[in-house]
Amino acid sequence: MVKAPTKTETTASVMDAWSMMFAPQARMAEAMIGQNIEMLDFIKTRFERDKAMLRELAEASDPIEAAKLWQDFWSRLFTDYSVETTKLASHAGEIAETALRSATEEGAALMTMVAKKA
User: Fold this and answer.
1) Contacting residues for 65 by C-beta, under 8 A, at least 6 apart
2) pLDDT tens column, 65-113
3) Are 70 and 21 in contact (CB under 8 A)?
4) CA distance 21 to 1
5) Distance CA 114, CA 56 (A)
6) Where is the Phasin domain (predicted)?
7) I want to staple 105 with a disulfide (CB 3.0 to 4.6 A). Which of 24, 72, 82, 100 is the partner?
């Protein structure tokens, strides 16, 4: 005769299943949040540089100085966006790897839960 699981055993089984399914999702969410933080940091820094450039431009003493400020601004802007694009591409690769690992772990967790019920 098969003994029915106790309430404690059932609760432990549900918690194990929850942990197996949630852990990969949590890692994926952490990776996405990390990328969002990176983008927000970039935007904040870019806006601060833009604001500083406007102040410097307003204080320029002649058109030649103003033209130099604009030239430096555009050069720095293109460099900043190039560096950020490289960072985001790297993050996207890491997120894709995390998604693949998460899907694999979730599949394994489902198989484990199915096997326990069988």
Assistant:
1) none
2) 999 999 999 999 999 999 999 999 888 888 888 878 877 877 777 777 6
3) no
4) 31
5) 66
6) 36-105
7) 24
Token digits of residue 52: 């500083």
What is the pTM (predicted TM-score) of this model? 0.67
| Three-state SS sequence of the chain | CCCCCCHHHHHHHHHHHHHHHHHHHHHHHHHHHHHHHHHHHHHHHHHHHHHHHHHHHHHCCCHHHHHHHHHHHHHHHHHHHHHHHHHHHHHHHHHHHHHHHHHHHHHHHHHHHHHHHC
